[in-house]
Automatic annotation (TrEMBL):
Keywords (A to Z) from UniProt: Isomerase, RNA-binding
Organism: Hydrogenothermus marinus
Superkingdom of the source species: Bacteria
Protein family according to the UniProt entry: Belongs to the pseudouridine synthase RluA family.
Protein name, entry field: 23S rRNA pseudouridine1911/1915/1917 synthase
């Protein structure tokens, strides 16, 4: 992180543009990553008014240049005549947009590919696709009937004092249930395994925040003020879809799909002595 001191009142976008000698568009893109800190607080409003003496921390610009993440054969975790499971990287949307996982997979495997579910842009792990609309409908029914087991791992703030916790906090006035299992802890962090029984938007992130264990790197439900340089270096929420299991409606057998722990997870766990 590069630390810069503000010499006179100015908006954040203009300050970054002038300080780094980049266009205001690139400055806005950098701010949109939500990895800019002002006086230790995460700020992502381009028009935010800086005052003389404010300290602005900016990640290395080389790592923040917007580029397309390429989905290839190497991302395929499982494939049969009906579905494809992709190991989704961070910072790429699941569907509906140009260069999304769905969009790229259609170019790789055919135009009838359709996402059965979604993961947040920053969340990594297993993403399931159908090879036709009729297959999509059948698997969507499995989802709605809760016949697909979804398991995630997350790294959170604070030491957990429980081995298992069931969270039933509603989201958008709808029932939501998560089962949280503590895998490993130290004085400041916890590594969790989470099974979700419902699929509400941002469910795991909201539920972990509600019990006092927001996910490391979560810009929406996590801590706003961060002092630790290790935490400031985390570019995304450390949430990973690790396992999907279900009874295959066409092949008539149980299928278990696993995704390995991502590199940035391992790096953080190593830095905080949780690996």
């Amino acid at each position: 992180m590069e630390k810069l001191i503000v010499e006179k009142p100015i908006d954040l976008k203009s300050f970054i543009s002038k300080s780094l000698n980049i266009s205001k568009t690139k400055s806005k893109n950098l701010i949109d990553t939500k990895n800019i800190f002002v006086n230790g607080k995460r700020v992502w409003i381009a028009t935010y008014k800086l005052q003389k003496g404010d300290i602005v921390e900016i990640p290395e610009i080389k790592k923040e240049v917007k580029k397309t993440t390429i989905i290839s054969q190497n991302n395929i975790l499982y494939e049969d005549d009906f579905i494809i499971a992709i190991d989704k990287p961070a910072f790429i949307v699941s569907e509906s947009k140009r260069d999304s996982v769905e969009d790229q997979l259609r170019k790789l495997k055919g135009k009838n590919i359709k996402a059965i579910h979604r993961l947040d842009k920053e969340t990594t792990g297993i993403l399931l696709f159908a090879k036709s609309f009729s297959i999509f409908e059948r698997f969507k029914k499995l989802w709605e009937e809760k016949n697909i087991k979804k398991e995630y791992i997350a790294i959170s703030h604070k030491k957990a004092e429980f081995k298992k916790k069931i969270i039933n906090f509603p989201i958008d006035n709808k029932y939501a249930k998560s089962e949280v299992f503590t895998i490993k802890t130290n004085k400041f962090y916890s590594l969790f395994k989470i099974n979700i029984k419902t699929g509400r938007k941002h469910q795991i992130r909201i539920h972990l925040s509600k019990i006092g264990h927001p996910i490391i790197g979560d810009k929406d439900y996590g801590y706003k003020y961060i002092d630790d340089p290790i935490l400031k270096s985390v570019k995304r929420q450390l949430l990973h879809s690790s396992t999907l299991s279900f009874f295959h409606p066409y092949l008539k057998k149980k299928v278990i799909i696993n995704s390995p722990i991502p590199k940035d997870f391992k790096e953080f766990l190593r830095k905080v002595n949780l690996l």
